[in-house]
């Protein structure tokens, strides 16, 4: 294999990449440039997010359909159950299946009013992600991933409630959890210990967010309950108007985070790419991955 980890040992690093559906032609080109650039790393799967508030399936459907048609990558479609009844959600899942999707990232979603607004299940809908997982399982033998929150979901009163929901999702048939992003590996490690103590044995794949824009990340972290350690914030301090240095620092910071996770025995990473390839490419390279550029279609610039 062309893969080996940074230390050169035989440990095989697995990666997956998350993209969001483009809103216009320019964003579509950016997305496809990024997919083409990252494809040679042979990710386990590439996932495409679903519109916030359960808004629209179309952009996600078009994107996974194109991935399925034009690449050798395995697409995973995010799917939420917010604001729809079960019949509609099931119909959407079947539409995804018809274009080549066999892997779902099953989520409850947030209310259309936004993160933090009180969640009300649709009267005829799946009440939470665990019910959605069961619904998908009833349709087909899909691969199903779900969310996990190393710092608790903002609506969870405590870790026990949070991990209980994860347990319900796994009992319903989820085979992998992908975490919300985090910047403190101790937080992740403590969380995984709690999860294992609760008798959950599926992989808890760390979700890594390379920082393209620190101010944005800080705002978003507040909303979704992820903490930003002071020493982490300090790294980006004063670089607001210096994108070049910021990118170098972001690569260094993310490399430090993933290398530390490798040292802790982690060999599977999910990257929130924000539809940009450069940082993720650098981090995968540092992880020891080497793309098969020469054989990849379209890789010749
Ligand atoms: P669930 O797993 O159903 O619940 C999350 C937590 O909320 C639980 O741990 C539980 O503790 C708590 N909770 C739920 N119900 C109750 C209750 N009745 N009482 C007490 N506590 C409760 N959103 C999108 O719109 N589109 C996407 O594509 C998308 N992709 C994501 C991918 C990942 C990897 C992650 C981590 C999140 C993603 N989200 C996405 C965001 C997600 O929709 C929100 O975080 C949402 O608020 C929760 O969805 P969930 O599936 O995690 O919910």
Automatic annotation (TrEMBL):
Residues in the signal sequence: none
Any matching Pfam family: MTHFR
GO biological process, one term: tetrahydrofolate interconversion
Cofactor(s) it depends on: FAD
Pathway participation: Amino-acid biosynthesis; L-methionine biosynthesis via de novo pathway; One-carbon metabolism; tetrahydrofolate interconversion
Molecular functions (GO terms): FAD binding; methylenetetrahydrofolate reductase (NADH) activity
UniProt KW keywords: Amino-acid biosynthesis, FAD, Flavoprotein, Methionine biosynthesis, NAD, Oxidoreductase
Reaction catalysis annotation: (6S)-5-methyl-5,6,7,8-tetrahydrofolate + NAD(+) = (6R)-5,10-methylene-5,6,7,8-tetrahydrofolate + NADH + H(+)
NCBIfam families for this protein: fadh2
The name this protein goes by in its record: Methylenetetrahydrofolate reductase
Lineage: Bacteria, Pseudomonadati, Pseudomonadota, Alphaproteobacteria, Hyphomicrobiales
């Amino acid at each position: 294999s062309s893969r080996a980890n940074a230390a050169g040992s035989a440990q095989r690093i697995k990666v997956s990449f998350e993209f969001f559906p483009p809103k216009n032609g320019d964003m579509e080109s950016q997305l496809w440039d990024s997919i083409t650039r990252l494809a040679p790393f042979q990710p386990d799967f590439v996932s495409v997010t679903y519109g916030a508030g359960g808004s629209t399936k179309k952009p996600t459907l078009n994107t996974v359909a194109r991935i399925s048609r034009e690449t050798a990558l395995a697409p995973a479609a995010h799917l939420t159950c917010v604001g729809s009844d079960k019949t509609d959600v099931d119909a959407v899942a079947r539409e995804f299946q018809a274009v080549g999707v066999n892997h779902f990232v099953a989520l409850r979603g947030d209310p259309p009013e936004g993160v933090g607004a009180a969640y009300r299940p649709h009267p005829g809908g799946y009440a939470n992600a665990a019910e959605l997982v069961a619904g998908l399982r009833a349709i087909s033998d899909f691969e199903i991933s779900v969310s996990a929150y190393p710092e608790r979901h903002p609506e969870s009163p405590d870790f026990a409630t949070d991990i209980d929901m994860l347990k319900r999702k796994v009992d319903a048939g989820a085979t992998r959890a992908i975490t919300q992003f985090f910047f403190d590996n101790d937080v992740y490690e403590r969380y995984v210990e709690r999860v294992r103590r609760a008798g959950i044995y599926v992989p808890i794949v760390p979700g890594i967010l390379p920082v393209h824009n620190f101010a944005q990340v800080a705002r978003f972290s507040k909303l979704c309950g992820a903490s930003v350690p002071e020493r982490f914030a300090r790294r980006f301090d004063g670089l607001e108007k210096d994108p070049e240095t910021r990118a170098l620092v972001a690569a260094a910071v993310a490399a430090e985070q993933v290398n530390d996770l490798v040292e802790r025995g982690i060999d599977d990473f999910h990257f929130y790419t924000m539809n940009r390839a450069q940082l993720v490419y650098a981090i995968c390279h540092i992880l020891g991955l080497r793309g098969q550029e020469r054989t990849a279609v379209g890789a010749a610039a």
